[in-house]
Amino acid sequence: MEDYITSQHRYYTFNYYLQKKYNHKVFKVALNGNFSCPNRDGTISKNGCIFCSPSGSGDFAGNKNDSLETQFKMVKDIIELKWPNSYYIVYFQANTNTYKPLNELKELFEKAINLDPKIKAISIATRPDCLDDEKIEYLSELNKKIPVMIELGLQTSNDKTALLINRGYKTELIKDICFKLNKANIETIIHIINGLPFETKDDMYNTLNFVNSLNIQGIKIHSLFVLKNTELARMYNNHEFDMQSFEDYIEVTSNQIAMLKKDIVVHRISGDPPKELFIAPTWSLKKFVVMNEIDKYMKKHNLYQGSLYN
Ligand code: SF4
Prior knowledge:
Elements lengths: L13 H9 L3 E6 L36 H15 L4 E6 L9 H12 L5 E8 L6 H13 L2 E8 L3 H6 L6 H13 L3 E8 L6 H12 L5 E6 L2 E2 L3 H7 L8 H14 L5 E4 L9 E3 L6 H14 L10
Parallel strand pairs: 1-2, 2-3, 3-4, 4-5, 5-6, 6-8
Antiparallel strand pairs: 7-9
Helix pairs in contact: 7-9, 9-10
The protein binds iron/sulfur cluster.
C-alpha cells in the first residue's frame, strides 16, 4: 500500500506531497500578473471558455493594480498570524500566465520568486498554445533555480465538448506540450472538469484515461459550476443542459481517482466557486462535504488511487 494512504484519504493528496517535500506548512499565494487571454482578447476568440468568469478564472488572485510585493505581503501577513513558519508557492492563476513576450515573463517571474526567501516554488496556469519552445526553454532554466509547476486547462479530452465550451485548441496539442514539458523536467498539472454540458460518465472516464497517458505529475478535478456573466449562465438559464447531480459527481470523481496512476498527485477534487458570482449548483459550494463524500464512497467501494488503473 502506498505511504500516502491514510485512514482519511485513499489517494495522493497535494498536502501529503507538500509535507513530504518541504516538511513545513506550505501555502499557495495567488498573484495577479495582469495577464490577458488569447481566448478572450480576440486572438483566438472574443468569448472565452463558456464557464470562465470575467477575471479569467482567477477570482482569488490579488488585485492586478497592486504590485507583486503588495499582493504577496497582504496574504503572507494574514497567514503568518497563525502559521509563522510557513513556506509559499507563488501562483499565477488569473487568465493565461505565459501570454506575454518572453522578456516580460522573465522580469515578472524573477521578481515573483525573489519576493521572499520562504517562497519555495512557482506555479503558472496557462494554455498549451501559449507555450512555445523558447518559453519552455526559459521555464526549464527557471526550474533549475526554483521548482516550476505548469498548470494546463484540459477540461475534457473530447474535442466535440471542447468545441462546445469554446476551449479554442485541439486535445492533440496538449499531448505535444506535455511531452516537451516532461522532457524539460517541469512538473505539469492538468485541470479537468466533470459535468460539462452533454458529457456522459464515459466521456469523463475517457478524459481521465487520456490524462494518465500524458506523463504528468498532478491533476486538479473540478465540478462544473455556473457563474454570472458567462455563456454557461445563459445556457443554464435557458435550460439547455442538465447540471450533474451531487451523487454523480461523487461517483465519477471517486472512480476517476481509482483509475488514476498511483504517482500522480491529486491537487484538488472540487471546485472553489467565488460566492459573489455564483449561480449553481449549490452543492459545489460545500467543498468539505464533497471531499468527505468522496472519501466515504471510496471506502464503501474499496477503491484506492490506482486500484482501477489499467
Ligand atoms: S483559457 Fe482560461 S482564462 Fe482563457 S477563457 Fe479559457 S478558462 Fe478563461
